[in-house]
């Protein structure tokens, strides 16, 4: 688990509030823009990471902006971490699946397939 000073603003603008989850690299937190109060997602990766990934993710996200792809607001160094501040997305597919007792209707499945294939 990453250690950091939650009170110290990221890029002089963003503050972390709570953890959303973690992936194969990095941890993702909910936070907000101190000037506008916009809620954001903040991904942190240790600068000590053996195989740094977050810069690649930042470059790819910046290149493929669009529907369902979080907009990147800020990328840089903070304390001893590399940080990407991005748009906060809603529920992921697993969370939505759980909300409907792990059973999607045929219509939902067809809409998902349509999005996966054509968007
Ligand atoms: N922009 C975002 N808005 C809201 N939640 C997010 C956002 N990005 C990531 N999360 C949540 O944070 C958690 C970790 O995301 P992360 O991108 O680190 O890993 P992952 O995509 O789940 O897995 P992997 O790193 O293996 O691809 C997930 O539960 C995901 O739903």
Automatic annotation (TrEMBL):
Membrane-spanning intervals of the chain: none
PROSITE patterns referenced in this protein's UniProt entry, alphabetically: PROTEIN_KINASE_ATP (PS00107), PROTEIN_KINASE_DOM (PS50011)
Domain of life: Eukaryota
Residues where ATP binds: 43
Keywords on record: ATP-binding, Nucleotide-binding
Domain spans labelled Protein kinase: 14-119
A Pfam family annotated for this UniProt entry: Pkinase
GO molecular function: ATP binding; protein kinase activity
Name of the protein this chain belongs to: Casein kinase I
UniProt KW Nucleotide-binding keyword: yes
């Amino acid at each position: 688990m990453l250690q950091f000073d939650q009170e110290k603003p990221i890029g002089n603008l963003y503050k972390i509030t709570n953890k959303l989850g973690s992936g194969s690299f990095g941890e993702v937190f909910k936070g907000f823009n101190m000037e506008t109060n916009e809620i954001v997602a903040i991904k942190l990766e240790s600068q000590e990471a053996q195989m740094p990934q977050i810069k690649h993710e930042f470059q790819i996200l910046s290149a493929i902006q669009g529907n369902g792809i979080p907009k990147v607001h800020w990328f840089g160094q903070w304390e001893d971490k590399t940080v990407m501040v991005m748009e906060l997305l809603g529920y992921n597919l697993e969370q939505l699946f759980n909300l409907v007792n792990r059973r999607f209707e045929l219509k939902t499945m067809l809409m998902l397939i349509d999005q996966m294939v054509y968007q």
